[in-house]
Amino acid sequence: MSRPELPIGTWGKIRTEKLGPRRFRARARFRDYDGKTRDIEATDTTGPAAERALKIKLRDRTTPNDDEITRETHVSRLAELWIEEITTEERIAPQTIHRYATSVRAAILPALGNLRIREASVGRLDRFLRDIAKDRPSAARGAKVVLSQMFALAVRHGALPTNPVRDTGRLRKPRRAVVILSDEHLQAVRTAIRDWQRPVPGKPGPRHTGDLADVVDLMLATGARIGEILALRWADLDLATARPTLTICGTLVFVTGQGFFRQPWTKSDAGYRMVVLPRFAIGMLLTRKLDAADNPHDAIFASRRGTWLSPNNVRRQWRQARADTDLAWVTPHTFRKTVATLIKEETSTKNAAAQLGHSSEEVTATYYIAKPVQAPDVSDVLERLGADRNRRPTPRGHDDDHG
């Protein structure tokens, strides 16, 4: 019967022999990471010393290179190598890498970093994700994406036969009712912005600009994301046609150490789109063009210093404007959902998806279009309540109770 193969990275029985006066040799068979079994030996002045020297050699041999991934690699090291890989490949946007790194640092390493890859079982990873999902479902979904890619790297390096993250349970995405703005809400939004922009006598600091009102108008005119609106340039606007258009072809992104900058592509291929502008937006843009100061980015919405106007600043301005109102529930995305719902009601879900830059009508219908709750069909039951409505009343003179 042939001798069973050693597992990779392990050695067999250590044998010691005397070679001469004060000279001993310790030997063992070791199965290397290339699958080949080799004889490894070490010598010293005594048998125990030779055995100790051999064990050091064997341990050094089982320690992978810094960039090698094995079953014994710690999850923290796997995360580090994965971040290095996606950063070097430059396939993923810098802001996405920053988001992944934040998930690694804030969620994954504190709970799993000291585990070895072989210890990251499906059950352990599933419990980790579900614990996060109890309070932070979106953080749990983000952590699952990161872990899946990390362990895919481990599989590619042969450290694992399969990716354990794939067999973890599905994380349910909580469904929230889509809430949109009514005509009364829109009027309240514009009133709140006008009141906020009105100068207050004796109040120090620069006057509020008209940026917030114009940004809101353009979001309502296009259904674009706030980052897409603030990345628009005058070159993207074509007013010299019967139906003026705006080409949405970039977005503002934030990268640590660099701040906000314009990314010359949208969130997806479907996001690169040309939209026809309604009349109220054309008038606003013409007025803005006449009053606009030049800036190095050709930005429609620039800060006082000529830099890109950041989404954070716009959100902060809107929070200030709505402070004394009951509009705390209104966010920039509410305008986008309002646009989607109106287009769907007046035309189709297909048109709404195209306007918003979605590749799938399902995404638009599920997350952006307000729908009434469907009541059960109990019309046959309710019909009983109308059974007597056409029956002619009995004349009083023929009432049996008075006969």
UniProtKB/TrEMBL annotation:
Signal peptide positions (record): none
Segments forming domain Tyr recombinase: 176-383
Molecular function via GO: DNA binding
Domain Core-binding (CB): 73-155
PROSITE patterns xrefs: CB, TYR_RECOMBINASE
BP-aspect Gene Ontology terms: DNA integration; DNA recombination
Keywords: DNA integration, DNA recombination, DNA-binding
Location of the region described as Disordered in the Swiss-Prot/TrEMBL record: 383-403
Record family assignment: Belongs to the 'phage' integrase family.
Protein name: Site-specific recombinase XerD
